[in-house]
Amino acid sequence: MSVMLVYEMFIPFVIFITICFYFLERRWKTSKHWQYIKNLPCPKAYPIIGTARLEDSVGLFKRDRIRAKEFYPIYKLWSFHVYFVCLVSPEDIELVLNNVQHNTKSDIYNFLHGWLGTGLLTSSGSKWHKRRKILTPAFHFSILQQFIDIFNQETENLVRVFEDNCHESYIDVVKPITDFTLYSIGETSLGVKLNEYPSSDTYKKAVYEYGHNLTYRIVRPWFYTDFVYSFTTKSKSDRAAIKVLHEFSTKVIKERKKVGVASEHISSISYSGKKRLAMLDLMLTAKNEGADIDDEGIREEVDTFMFEGHDTTSMAICYTLMALANEPEIQDEIRREIHEIIGDSSKKPTFSNLGELKFTERCIKECLRLYPSVPFISRLSGEEIQTHSGYTIPKGANINIYIFDLHRSTHIWENPEKFDPDRFLPENVSKRHPFAYLPFSAGPRNCIGQRFAILEIKAALCGILRKFKLEAVDAPEDMVFKSDLVLRPAGEIRVKFVPRK
After folding, report:
1. What pTM, to 2 d.p., does this model score?
2. Contact, 104 vs 125, CB < 8 A?
3. Residue 254, Cβ neighbours under 10 Å: how many?
4. What is the per-residue pLDDT across 151-184, written as a single tens digit (0 to 9) for each?
5. CA separation for the pair 411, 430 (Å, rounded)
6. What is the 3 state secondary structure string of 413-446?
7. 437, 412 contact by CB (below 8 A)
8. CB–CB of 96/403 below 8 Å?
9. Backbone angles phi, psi at 260, to 5 degrees
10. Secondary structure (3-state) at 468
11. What is the pLDDT of residues 113-127, one digit of tens each?
């Protein structure tokens, strides 16, 4: 065993036991803040280390699901000096997401600052408001309409990949779909063709590596301090990944600057006499016009949108294909709707066509219920919260919101494991709590790109289902997930593609 490994495993642990033993005991006994936390239900805990377990990412994901069921609607997790209030019920979740006092992301998001800085995902306060104001016009419907041609072209490229490999007994859809979403976000929001970048695969690997390291760090509170974590091999791995990620996004920005803001790119259009720009062009123009954003700020947002714009949508499409492969009748109904609205396979869908695919959209929503791309989010309480379950969450508490468990809760959904797109008929939606379904979060900090994502998923399904019948290889009950930045599978997502005659 190396000296470095001994340091990582034992020395930080001993230091924290020594320091925390004294201070935790005092705080739990005397602090009103900690009395509120102490009153919350809690899984089995041990002195000092609390509920922490040294598990791999698969074990952590499984344990979180068990805890959410056992302690619904609220419980706490804690270890050493760190604790999290965990919410699963829509009533309590609404108190957090629908109140601007709780807009600040929790301490967990600090681990992303090395990569994403304080962009739209991780910033708070006035900086978040300014960035949101700058970026919101980039997702106006007039901009989204211009993206359809790109979605259609990238879908054609994706279909060719499946055609080249459909003779195989199955295709692991993760890589081709991730390529599709990465190239789509590159050409639409960034104005560059990422499929011409030889480093695209290296970028994706760096994203996976960073997410893996983040999960490792989360379950080891003695690494929450940057100084202690900086001596670990995982920190070294993070620095290498960040170097790759930042070099990639910096190259994207430089390439776009060479072309010139809104020159020949489809992102520059006129709407009601006002020029509208896609995301990167919008920021470059805003900087030139004196807005409160500099080159570092632009890179923060490019990093954020490249990650969120490709990885989350990629997982959504992958799970959708797997789910539809297991639902042949629903798959056929989607194909019939596509044919009725768009016509034969030689016709490409328009923006209007995609908006008319109501049954398809209900199926996408049901897939996002079962497989939310972001399985949990976390906030910092900006003021004291009196929950519907009768507990008090003190100001300054880290609050975890478990979207995966919310979407599969038997307290909300009848037969929650069943794939049923009728859950999203208007009459059924109106009967549910408005915060029972949160694939794109909710409230002031909801996902700015949700309409973009739905359009992209629809376009992909149109191209794929017109060319192929999907047959099941992996069943939903066989899927194994692991804790990560997104809902990532522990293995492959396998689907059989049968060409339609």
Report:
1. 0.92
2. yes
3. 10
4. 999 999 999 999 999 999 999 999 999 999 999 9
5. 17
6. CCCCCCCCHHHHCHHHHCCCCCCCCCECECHHHC
7. no
8. no
9. 100, 140
10. strand
11. 999 999 999 999 999
Q: Is 446 helix (H, G, I), strand (E, B) or coil?
A: coil
Per DSSP, helices labelled H in 378-431 are: 403-407, 426-429
CA gap 452, 446 in Å, rounded: 13
Q: Which of 174, 237, 234, 235 is nearest to 206 (CA)?
A: 237
DSSP alpha helix (H) spans, 219-232? 226-229
Q: Which residue, among 462, 434, 489, 475, has the nearest Cα to 155 in the 3D structure?
A: 462
- Tokens 């509120």, residue? 36
Q: The tokens 């906030």 sit on which residue?
A: 379
Nearest in space to 83 (alpha carbons), one of 385, 383, 393: 393
**Residue carrying the six token digits 């708070």:** 124
Give, rounded to a whole angstrom, the gap between the first and last alpha carbons of the chain: 60
Q: Please tell me whether 367 is known to bind a ligand.
A: no
CA–CA separation, 398 and 28 (whole Å): 17
Element (H, E) at 143: helix 141-165
Question: Treating both helix axes as pointing N-terminal to C-terminal, what angle do 174-185 and 450-467 enclose, rounded to 10 degrees?
Answer: 130
Summarised one tens digit per residue, pLDDT across range 324-366 is: 999 999 999 999 999 999 998 789 999 999 999 999 999 999 9
